[in-house]
Specification:
By secondary structure, the chain is of the alpha+beta class. The chain has two domains: 39 residues, YefM-like fold (3-Layer(aba) Sandwich); 45 residues, no CATH class. The protein is 56% helix and 18% strand. It contains three helices and three strands. Strands 1-2-3 form a three-stranded mixed sheet.
Length: 85
């Protein structure tokens, strides 16, 4: 984990390099306390994709626990009828 003081944000090239090389967020502090997080766009997109996938898995688990499921053969049969396959 990279931690830099707020004043180092003036050196944007160095911050960009830190993000790219470490492949993780760079934490920015002000007066010794965390204030900002800077990250490479690829890292951000991967993280958001993982969050989206985890959300879908959790929704599926909740559906299963609440009995909101359909037997596979029945679902396929309904889809075939609906679409004339």
């Amino acid at each position: 984990m990279q931690i830099v003081p707020m004043r180092d944000l003036k050196n944007t090239v160095e911050i960009e390099k830190l993000c790219a090389e470490s492949n993780e967020p760079v934490f920015v502090t002000k007066n010794g306390y965390g204030r900002l997080v800077v990250m490479d766009i690829d890292y951000y997109e991967r993280t958001m994709r993982k969050i989206g996938e985890a959300t879908l898995v959790n929704q599926g688990i909740a559906d299963w626990e609440n009995g909101k499921v359909v037997e596979g053969k029945s679902a396929i049969s309904k889809l075939r009828k609906k679409h004339g396959i």
